[in-house]
Each structure stands twice: as structure tokens, then as C-alpha cells.
């Protein structure tokens, strides 16, 4: 895998992770909600115009374009497992920004993910 291909994959993963984190920040700003027929419109409008939600959707859109470019250069059997790095990024940023738990069990799982991605990319 050359530097451009790797950069595209990494950019796609980071944009995807950023999108997820921005959506979480947006839902935190809106607060807990349940969709009912009587609140679909008010909650939908709150979500639709929340800057974090909008930014997250843009990040997802850009990540889709970048990901398509990456897939045109790298076999999907190599590229797709690298999306798992997004779990690692999200876990640490969610711990830092949102105060989410980062237990020993999660860290072990993150280690397994990193090892698995390493093994898959080395097999190419």
C-alpha cells in the first residue's frame, strides 16, 4: 500500500470517527429524547439545526467521498478492517471529551483491534 492509499484510508477513518463524535456531541446538546408522534417535528428540527449534528453529517459525507477514493486504490479486504481503527479513536476521544468509561476490558479489546489490523495489513 502506498502513502496516498494509506492517507486516504486514514483520512476516511478519521472523518468517520469525527462524524460519530460530532453526532454524540449534538445529541448531548439536545438531551435525551424519545420519538413520539407529537414530538417528531420539534425534536427533528432541534436535531436538524444543531451545529454538531450538521457538522457530523458533513464529516460523514466527506468521509464517504474519501472512502470511495481509497477503495479505488486498495482491496476492500485490506481497507475495510482498517475502519476498526475508528473504534480506537472514538474510545479515547469519548473518554477524554465525554467522560465515558475506559475500562481494562475495553483497553484489552482495543489492543485486540490494533493487533488484528496490524496482522491484516501485513498479510497484503
From TrEMBL:
**Keyword vocabulary terms for this entry:** Cell membrane, Membrane, Transmembrane, Transmembrane helix
A Pfam match: Multi_Drug_Res
The subcellular location is: Cell membrane
Q: Which InterPro entries match?
A: EmrE-like, Small_drug/metabolite_transptr, Small_multidrug_res
Looking up SUPFAM superfamilies in the UniProt record yields: Multidrug resistance efflux transporter EmrE
Q: What membrane topology does the UniProt entry give? A: Multi-pass membrane protein
Q: Which top-rank group of organisms is this from?
A: Bacteria
- Membrane-spanning intervals of the chain: 47-71, 78-98, 104-121
- Asked if Membrane is a keyword of the record, the answer is yes
Q: Does the keyword Transferase apply?
A: no
Protein family (similarity comment): Belongs to the drug/metabolite transporter (DMT) superfamily. Small multidrug resistance (SMR) (TC 2.A.7.1) family.
Any idea what this protein is called? EamA-like transporter family protein
